[in-house]
Amino acid sequence: MPQKRILIVDDEPEVRKIISSILQSPKGGYEVREAGDVETALELLKEEPFDHVLCDIYMEPLTGIDFLRKVKSDGLNINIIMISGKADVEQALEAISLGADDYVHKPITAGQLLFVLRRIEEQKRLKEENERLRAEVQERYSFHNMVGKSTKMQVVFDVIKKIADYKTTVLITGESGTGKELVAKALHYNGARKNAPFIAVNCGGIPENLLESELFGHAKGAFTDAIRAKKGLFEEADGGTLFLDEIGDLPLTLQVKLLRVLQDEEVRPVGATNVVKVDVRIVAATSKDLEREVKRGSFRKDLFYRINVLRISLPPLRERREDIPILVEHFIEKFNARLGTKIKGISSECMQLLMDYPWPGNVRELENVMERTMVLAEGEVIQREDLPPYLLENLVVEDNVEKLDIEDSVLSIKKCSRVLEKKLIQRALQRTGGNKTQAAKLLEISLPALIYKMKDYGLFKSQF
């Protein structure tokens, strides 16, 4: 674990020396910097990150109260402990009202100072934990709440249980909307790191020029807007899990740096000369075929091998249709609680329509459909007319595919077989959202054979 860093602000060198010796002792274990006045302290805060500040109240020309007001107005998230003499108790209480975390009396003793620091650190830990819990809004991330009774999902649940406690890097693959972040959270909250931070970042959602600073942090002056030093997400996730979503979108330049972090377990902030040791479990996810990206040269082979240690492949919803009824039930319960709706169920006709739809957006699309439907439904039971129009239009196309439309005068088995074969291919493509690889599996033929037949029947020009 990195040493916690403390800035001592006091205009008396002897006092700073006494405090430094206490903090740097084996019982303390802190890294210490010193400032003899408020101006120097404010400059140090811009240049370096600190966990605590110990600041004397009575200094000239600017006082500890002036320092406190400036830090709070700048919005710095840092613990501040004021140092007061016996005659400064009223000012110490004023400092507490202005946002100081605590105060200590002179003469300072090791027992008093370390007790206050440990208490503040424990309070901060509990506060951060409570904030994480509130942010989850009572969401539970155990694998039990990743709904699915299909064999493929049961395999996923078993893998999560087996590997949750290990620090080994995990790669989660699957189409968009299959629940990759939910798996990452299940790995974290069911493992030994569950009480430490879970930090998620979308590698494709942050501009390339900002992503490096976001991941690794930066030193003051590293670039135009770097007015103070900043910790990166690797440091924020220290002791916990860093979830790198859509890692296939990570620029090649950052892939090199990420590989070095995974190998050395240390990060170098942008513009800094020092490195920081980190203890982070990496869980990466992608909707891309990384093997293909490696062949194309857009993803480094060595990084792929480094993150592809344990892989969890999430099936698309169309490959686990037996999970749709219990997912629907789950979403009805979830949105009744969240939205205050009173939906009791869904008609058998409507359920069959949901079972027949190909769900190109996977579970996320089903969740969005259920939320919309429950808000707009007229009765307590969801009916066909409550479903989104686009979904019904798609199903009308599916219904038309079922009709072979063969003339009564045609008796040729060969001709009828071609009509039937064409309709079956259309149906398979419809159910897989146009995914030829999956359609070939449903048809139980090879992909080259499917492509040949599609060309033969002119289906490349069709809209599915």
Describe this structure in words.
The protein has 464 residues and is α/β, with parallel strands linked by helices. It folds into four domains: 5-130, Rossmann fold (3-Layer(aba) Sandwich), CATH 3.40.50.2300; 148-222 and 230-315, P-loop containing nucleotide triphosphate hydrolases (Rossmann fold), CATH 3.40.50.300; 318-394, Orthogonal Bundle (Helicase, Ruva Protein, domain 3), CATH 1.10.8; 413-457, Orthogonal Bundle (Arc Repressor Mutant, subunit A), CATH 1.10.10. The chain is built from 19 helices and 14 strands. It has helices at residues 13-24, 38-47, 64-73, 89-97, 110-136, 151-163, 180-189, 208-216, 233-236, 252-264, 290-296, 301-307, 324-339, 348-356, 362-376, 389-401, 413-431, 436-443, 447-456, and strands at residues 5-9, 31-35, 52-56, 79-84, 102-105, 170-173, 198-202, 241-245, 266-267, 276-277, 281-286, 310-313, 345-346, 381-382. Strands 2-1-3-4-5 form a five-stranded parallel beta sheet, sandwiched between helices. Strands 7-8-11-6-12 form a five-stranded parallel beta sheet. Pfam families: AAA_lid_14, HTH_8, Response_reg, Sigma54_activat. Keywords: Activator, ATP-binding, DNA-binding, Nucleotide-binding, Phosphoprotein, Transcription, Transcription regulation. Residues 146-375 form the Sigma-54 factor interaction domain.
Concise account of the structure shown:
By secondary structure, the protein is of the alpha/beta class. Helices cover 48% and strands 12% of the residues. The chain has helices spanning 13-24, 38-47, 64-73, 89-97, 110-136, 151-163, 180-189, 208-216, 233-236, 252-264, 290-296, 301-307, 324-339, 348-356, 362-376, 389-401, 413-431, 436-443, 447-456; strands spanning 5-9, 31-35, 52-56, 79-84, 102-105, 170-173, 198-202, 241-245, 266-267, 276-277, 281-286, 310-313, 345-346, 381-382.
